[in-house]
Amino acid sequence: MPTLLFQADRETLLPGEVLSGRLQVFVQPGQTIKTSGLEIYFRGKEYTTIVTGSGKNKRFYEGKALVGRSDLKEVSRWATRRIIRDGAVLPGTHLIPFKIHLRGHLPASTRFDGVGNAPKLSAKIEYCLRARLSESGVFTDYEARKAIRILGKPVPDKIAPRRVEPFAAHINRLRMWEKGEMTIGAKVVDTELFPGQKAGVILALKNNSGATPKSLSLSLKQIYRVKASNKEKQVSKVLSSRFFLMKHLHKYEPLTKQELKSLNKIDILARRCENRRAILHELDHAPQSTEFLQLVVPPHTAPQFQSKLIKVSHELVVKIHTDDLCTNPSFSIPVTISPRAPPRAASSPVDPVAPRSTPVVTAEMALPVAMARPISEESLRNYPEFAVQVVPILG
């Protein structure tokens, strides 16, 4: 049985970087391994599952798509000429170097299971290096696999503020009796966030209703959207939440019943326009008259990304809690959670454009077979991550 081992220089990379390493093929002297050629390739796949219903009505929907692909045809042809003679692998140890320019748009390696109640969503994205001796057995081929982790593509660390234009939220009591409206506006300090960073929202409010705002809440929501078997489902999960008491309660005094009855459509429209101008002025020039909400993004928050079957996005949800069983108005603000760029080593080349996914065999890669040295058993014991088990698969 031949031994195939992958040795990757780095197993965790960013999109656009270069994946390099060596493949070791070892055949014992006197052993004959028939094969038609050696294939080396890099693959990224995503798998999704949607579970709906329960009991006898439970249904499973599965999806699969290819997100990254690189066939090392030049390296495979060069290796086939070097290590295969007369349809058999030459005995001894052979080292085959390779380089792969990763595409700049690859989604990050991810995995989540059983998100939501009805339906339940599961998904994962995996990348791996694979090498196979084609037609090397009667029923199966011998191959080696090496898992590669792709991190999320970092974004520049810059401040991206955003203003929520003032809008009117209708207030009802028990969803039946109208109690006027509140005019709400907000300003987000930064919509480009990172795990562990603080998210801040400045809120301005004008109350023209019979309800009294008592407190505020700010939540970070993560939204999963998954496709599988022509079915698309979405679930959300609250990652973090905080409550705040209103600082300027004297400004939000409710209207009396007589004031509510005396309001007509013209008065409502006039007050709405006046409130919008006042809210814009407070947000830009009078921050001391506004409410400030702050929330820390959890350190293990999954970054935002989108692939063929999976989409992960985030929202900040602001909610105003009132009394007397009245409506609690709320609004959401889309934000972007991105990973920070890790410290980069000087020897790790980066190709931000990555024009090619298939490398070219250069002179430094074309090492003679005589120069290849086997990996000792002691080295394999000290570095068990290099020992990739040979797995037979169907030919």
Would you give an account of this structure?
By secondary structure, the protein is mostly beta strands. The protein has two domains: 3-154 and 342-394, Immunoglobulin-like, CATH 2.60.40; 162-337, Immunoglobulin-like (Sandwich). It is 11% helix and 49% strand. The chain has helices at residues 73-83, 257-262, 265-285, 377-382; strands at residues 3-8, 12-13, 18-27, 37-52, 59-71, 84-85, 88-89, 92-101, 110-115, 120-134, 140-150, 162-173, 177-188, 192-193, 198-209, 213-228, 231-245, 291-296, 305-306, 310-322, 330-337, 391-394. The strands form five sheets. Strands 2, 4, 5, 9, 10, 11 and 22 form a seven-stranded mixed beta sheet that branches. Strands 14, 16, 17, 19, 20 and 21 form a six-stranded mixed beta sheet that branches. It has a four-stranded antiparallel beta sheet with strand order 12-13-15-18. Strand 10 (120-134) and strand 11 (140-150) form a beta hairpin. It is elongated and about 100 Å long. The chain starts with a strand and ends with a strand. One of its GO terms (cellular component) is cytoplasm. One of its GO terms (biological process) is protein transport.
